[in-house]
Amino acid sequence: MSETPASSVFKEAAALxxxxxxxxxxxxxxxxxxxxxxxGNSLGAPPRGVAGRLADVVGxxxxxxxxxxxxxxxxxxxxxxxxxxxxxxxxxxxxxVVVGDSTSVNVxxxxxxxxxxxxxxxxxxxxxxxxxxxxxxxxxxTFPTDGYIARSAARMTGCRIxxxxxxxxxxxxxxxxxxxxxxxxxxxxxxxHDLPGTTAALRAAGAHTVWDVCHSAGALPVRLDADxxxxxxxxxxxxxxxxxxxxxxxxxxxxxQDRFDSPLPGWNSHADPFAMDPAYAPAGGAVRGRVGxxxxxxxxxxxxxxxxxxxxxxxxxxxxxxxxxxxFLRCVEAYVPExxxxxxxxxxxxxxxxxxxxxxxxxxxxxxxxxxxxxxxGDHRRPDVLRFGFTPLYTRFADAERAARVLGEVIGAxxxxxx
Length: 419
Fold this sequence. Notes:
Layout lengths: L4 H14 L17 E2 L11 H14 L6 H4 L5 H12 L7 E3 L3 H17 L15 E5 L4 H14 L2 E5 L4 H4 L4 E7 L11 H10 L3 E5 L18 E4 L14 E4 L43 H10 L8 H22 L6 E2 L11 E5 L4 H10 L2 E2 L1 E3 L3 E5 L7 H22 L1
Parallel strand pairs: 1-11, 3-4, 3-5, 5-6, 6-7
Antiparallel strand pairs: 2-8, 7-8, 9-10, 10-13, 12-13
């Protein structure tokens, strides 16, 4: 009896899991083995070390040491210390990443600071001068909050906003462009954009770049230093597994730090915060990206969560991510009735993040709800996209096979009910 496509991918999943060099990492996460969790691109699973670390922070550092922990437990320097741990995962040398606030707040800081930098570089628009740089380019498919913040920043600085496809940023930047805000990976489709090429083109045009790396940090190698990024922002609750509402991070390229003029000059970014000087004097280095008192409980939970990355090679993470997404697409082809779904995630590896998005049509929300009810957790983006995120540190090939199999069953049952 010949082997069916379904039986073939089932056997292949077992073989791939047996050969997986990252397989042991799964044991470092608190996961329900009866559930296939493919929503780490929205909220990562909790590493096992977090609960114990938080218990110690609450019971000993806060409960016993109290305010002494700002010095004795290293609370005061945690935003930069944890920032350097993230820096290793996004290709940033120490001293360029600070952790704190939300992604939205950090987008605001970076965009306004970039505009101020171009204004301070002599682009004044006077007679005989280059035109005033009064244009902000924003990724036309950006995650909504980035667009909202960019538009507000543009209004506050007297700039105009222009929505441009990420792939077109390089050729659309001109003499009036101050900054471009671009998503490294499109949250809806999983498309990976050209960070080095776009950054180089914007720099050649005299403009700055702000990269949103929320959907790439921890999912694939990011090379902020090597690729010349000016600014980057990212959240830590997706592939970095920091927990719901975990603080975000801000990257400011070292060469720009002395000119980084934050629009939110809080006391924590002052050169001498305890002088209580009414006049603001910015601190040096990454500390300039701080605003108010650090979110210590969530910050130290993130610090503990980052322990799962110790000794992990991001090249291996990327290889497994691509293998998982390739395999999932083959499983979808084997299990889902032909023509019922279409991938909107690029086939080319160089253009793919760590998720697969499938267009289903009307009823996509109901399909995802049924998948979740059957123990396969992804998510739905209106109107018609089913998203499946693959977190290489804990997702198995068997998970990809089961998810596609259950998807085929759910869609097949819906199609049968319509007849």
